[in-house]
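Section 5.1 Outputs to date
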Amino acid sequence: MPFRFIQRLAARLAGSASTSNSPAESRLAVKPGDLLTQRDGQVWRAVWILEVDPWPDGTAAAHCLSYKPMDAKPTADSLKQAEVSIWHAPIDAGSFGEEGWELIGNRQPTEEELIGFAEYLRLTDFPRYLEVTGKDSKEIVREANAHYLRGNELCEQGRKQEGIAEYDAAVELFPLFFEAIDNQWDGRPHPYRHRCAKVEVSATT
């Protein structure tokens, strides 16, 4: 079945997949940079392990980049030109010990190839995002705050949509900017906000 691979991954993410009966010694222990492939019907699937995060219970999450199905078995070299299907998805690392996954190489990703993982971190673990990308936290906060204050000015002038665009820019830079997130919803359908709120802020130093 063409979509069996994605269905298995979705089932695992939902916690509905059954545990493998394979002995522990037969399981493939993945590490960052591993390139894996698997025959799936008439096509070959391939994933790239970008990072592996262990959990206290002994399991681990593999942060994966997935490629579009291929007619021929891929190699580490051929994957350099392969088309990406999903730039990032966290998957149970133990699942790669099942159903014929094969290690075909190891290559460390470049910054450009980590864009999916970086975006995931930006939204879920901002301190780690800064560590991985090397971005300056003070500069990010300064730029986000500038957008936020400009948004306040525009809203006070009655230019609501322009103000919301500035709040959007602030949150895009700094997803933990809760004041900007709150003000983003001015003039939009939102279950907790039904009218424009007056905002009083002062610039941080």
